[in-house]
């Protein structure tokens, strides 16, 4: 059983490193995305892949989604997932 936790933790950490590399390839902060990936893992991968590349200063290209919009959408997705998981857990107990 403990081996599963070790394997899962290693995979999650590896994914966070991959996400940092993806973020840097899109002119984003690799360190910030690495840290975020430790907590949200595959969701961070989705956000990085879906986001447009930035310019040299790390800003999004003109006419694209800004950081505040991305944060609001990300928090909305997380909240929606938590509500779905909570309702499934409550319905499963009934």
Tag the structure with descriptive keywords.
single chain, 94 residues, 0% strand
Secondary-structure element series: HHHH
Number of strands: 0
Mean pLDDT: 78
**Structural class computed from helices and strand pairing:** mainly alpha
- Poorly predicted sequence stretches spanning 5 or more consecutive residues: none
Number of structural units classed as domains: 1
Care to describe what's here?
- The protein has helices spanning 2-25, 30-40, 42-50, 67-93.
- By secondary structure, the chain is an all-alpha fold.
- It has one domain.
- α2 packs across α3.
- The relative contact order is 0.10.
- The model has no long low-confidence stretch (mean pLDDT 78).
